[in-house]
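look at this record:
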Amino acid sequence: MQSDGLTAAQVSKMIKLTGPRYNPTTKIVKMSCEKFDTQARNKRFLGDTIANLIKAAKDDTDTFEDVPFDFRHHTPKKRAEFPKDWVLTKERKIYLEEKRKKTEYLEDQRQGNGMLVDGKRVLDMSLPFMNESQQQAPQTVMAGGARGKPMR
């Protein structure tokens, strides 16, 4: 919420008038309107509402000093801190790169020695293959009539 032209007492009165629409973390008043059919009328209504709020905040007859601030509606989000141990240093980057190269080299060695399991090759060797001439067409079986009764 910008306080252009408002004193500190007027700003505090404005915060109390807006109630749960005020976010104390971001210091923004959030308002919306879906009362009317068109977007333009809703915007005009919001503009008039904001003007009335500013007018009421500038009115010095009642400063609302006896009304306490109530921010029970606002629960600040907890932000997780990134552990400093996880920051990548140059040494850590070099170590990880060497580890990746070593793992890649070991996989290449296993593949060359036949120690790496190749799923396609295992399936090719394990499953019996039938020639197309050996495959038989499925036979058609008659199931019963309309209600499961044998057909005559």
User: Anything to note?
Assistant: The helical segments are 8-18, 39-58, 90-113, 119-126. The chain has two domains: 1-73, 84-126. The longest helix spans residues 90-113.
